[in-house]
Write a structure and sequence with these properties.
heterodimer, A: 129 residues, mainly alpha, 5 helices, elongated, B: 91 residues, 4 helices, 0% strand
Chain lengths: 129, 91
């Protein structure tokens, strides 16, 4: 994977925005169409796999990515706890779709960070050359 | 010694939970799936019933699933430190 193919570099550069768009679409429309936080997050983490395919260099601070992931999980815990305990949804049923979108966004962020960490760990720490 | 105490504690909690479960038996007259298919849209406003289930009816499942993913990532980080020993990425 160390020979930098011009073709691969260019095609991956074209693909990035479409991957981001598709992942965000899956997350934001998770409560309407098939998809959701877990699937959209896995699609978003494909950005970094494509980045690795075109330029196999370590440019991420994985500790910072893990902090972001833990923060997303904490925010998800707080959001769901507030949603259950405040009981707003029994009087205002219109709140629920916004809650679903927010929770899906947090799950997507968390899964994207997690998959990125797993991939970079296996790619840079477990590769025997 | 501390670990066996923790194990005993978890076992005790499991016994209590199983006993409580027997006290209040869940009586379901018809399959849950019928209820969800009928009422998911009117109760949550989400056309996708899967999202309605995993974020509304069964949110504990989702929370612990997310937590389990975090644990698996911690395990991957812990197991994959054979090369580049002493890097700042190693925790």
């Amino acid at each position: 994977m160390n020979d930098h193919s011009q073709l691969l570099n260019r095609s991956m550069g074209i693909i990035y925005p479409f991957i981001i768009l598709f992942g965000l679409y899956m997350i934001a429309n998770g409560h309407v169409s098939p998809g959701g936080g877990f699937q959209g997050g896995a699609v978003l983490s494909a950005i970094f796999i494509a980045k690795y395919l075109s330029q196999p260099i370590m440019f991420l601070d994985l500790a910072r990515v893990q902090t972001l992931e833990k923060t997303a999980l904490l925010a998800l815990l707080i959001l769901v706890t507030l949603f259950i305990t405040l009981n707003v949804y029994q009087t205002f049923i219109q709140v629920i779709p916004y809650y679903l979108i927010l929770a899906n966004l947090l799950i997507g962020l968390k899964v994207a960070c997690g998959m990125t960490i797993i991939f970079y760990r296996f790619a840079f720490y477990e590769s025997r050359e | 010694m501390r670990r066996s105490y923790i194990g005993l504690f978890i076992f005790f909690i499991a016994l209590v939970v199983i006993y409580q479960n027997n006290l209040i038996p869940l009586s379901v007259t018809k399959p849950i799936s019928e209820y969800v298919i009928k009422n998911a849209y009117t109760e949550t406003g989400a056309p996708n019933a899967v999202t309605a289930i995993y974020l509304f009816y069964r949110y504990y499942d989702t929370l612990f699933e997310a937590l389990m993913l975090l644990f698996s990532i911690i395990a991957v980080i812990y197991m994959s430190v054979h090369e580049h020993e002493g890097d700042r990425y190693d925790e």
